[in-house]
Amino acid sequence: MMQGRLDDKRREHLCKLLSKLFEDLLSEDETVLLEAMLSESEEARLLYMQYVDLQVELGCLVVEEHMQNKLVRFPSSISKRKANKIPARRFAEAAVILVGIGMGLLWFFNRDGVSVEENQVARLTNPVGDVSIEVESKRSDLLEGMVMEYRPGDILRTEGAGSSVVLSYTDGSQFKVWSNSEVVNRAETGKIIELIEGAASADITEQHEKHPLMIRTPMAELTVVGTAFTVNAGKQETAVSVFDGEVRLKRLQDAKKADLGGGEFITITAKDMLVREMLDPGGLWEENLEKPFPKHVSAEGMFFNDKKYLPKGSYGAMKSVITEKSGQKTHWVMALPKDWNEGYFTIYPDSYLNITYKYERLNSSFQLVMDTRVFTPNQDPRATYVYMNEALTSEKYKKQWRSVSIPVRKFQHDSGERGTYPDGDVACGLTFHAVGEHSGFIIDKVWVTRGAAPGCTVLAR
What we know:
Layout: H1 8-22, H2 28-40, H3 42-58, H4 61-69, H5 88-110, H6 116-120, E1 122-135, E2 138-142, E3 148-150, E4 155-168, E5 174-177, E6 181-185, E7 192-204, E8 213-216, E9 220-233, E10 238-251, E11 257-261, E12 264-268, E13 273-277, E14 285-287, E15 303-304, E16 317-319, E17 321-326, E18 329-337, E19 345-346, E20 351-358, E21 361-373, E22 382-387, E23 402-407, E24 412-413, E25 426-439, E26 442-450, E27 457-458
Parallel strand pairs: 7-8, 23-27
Antiparallel strand pairs: 1-2, 1-3, 1-4, 4-5, 4-6, 5-7, 6-7, 7-9, 8-9, 9-10, 10-11, 10-12, 12-13, 14-26, 15-16, 16-26, 17-18, 18-25, 19-25, 20-23, 20-26, 21-22, 21-25, 22-24
């Protein structure tokens, strides 16, 4: 079965059938063949529409009859018009023009084997969750099972955890947009996608060098000729991981370039543009929070070194700080962010997160939030997992230093989907977050082990 493109022989045959169609000279067998070609090939339908547009301009009677007979069953923007009797001279002119159009279109499609229209238009498929498209300031929601064209200027949005949609091109390339992302089709010519924010993974077939896939983010421009990769974009940072093939990158602020190959990643910021290998940080990790305080902990006022309140032998800890006020509720947070592409540790089924901590009083909900990096093709490169357990802040242990071990598999994906585990992900951020009346929460040490740490209370729930 023919799909998408036509080879030279079929394209030439199609042009002959279309010429005979509009001269009303098709045989019954040729009519069946033409209908099959139009139903199976996007390129054939585009070529057909070029012929139809010219016939409408000429006021050809055959177009009117053809549409009434509904020979070709796909959406058309053709507006019917009342046909007048056409002089023989007009038919001769039309024949000459049609031959020229046919030859021109043959050249157009043959010059590199792919049409600009084919490059420009994608299909939005497999929408999951809250997915919408904005066309000329009008929003339309994509429901499960829907397929919609994604044309230049259209704005695509995925909102909420677990939402996603796939951009599918006729050459087999796929660009999957993950949750909380905004994408604009900038394809004036070729495949040009602007990822304003969010994340996507791509599996791109080999592109013609004159028509590569291009992705623009607020920080960089990516040129793709055929590869599998993920991209994560924000206003101040763009992170790209390549699994196979090659991606060429250019930082927008100074046009600095870099080439990224399989097994490599890069984080592009105003100051950094260093290509690195996808190294496994390993399953063990420890952060003692001693002085000097870790550079990646940037929140002001978090370092705590009053020895009267620290465990024996400790020289420093991390305390909670107020980050935001909203009505009567106070938000307290302690954060251990890390470079998105480096991360702290790789998560295994037997990974345990261990914490030595103390709190003076805590009358609020408390949760641990773990951000992970996913180095897997065709997966959202970001994930967030949450752990909540009242045993963390039991009244019984108030004002006491306590060490606990939490199975990382007990963290729940923020989409709420059960059975989704972070196995194989790399943790790149830990946040200890509370909402409500809170005072005196201090963490002396955070570390990760394979299996529960000796001397720690295991929180199984």
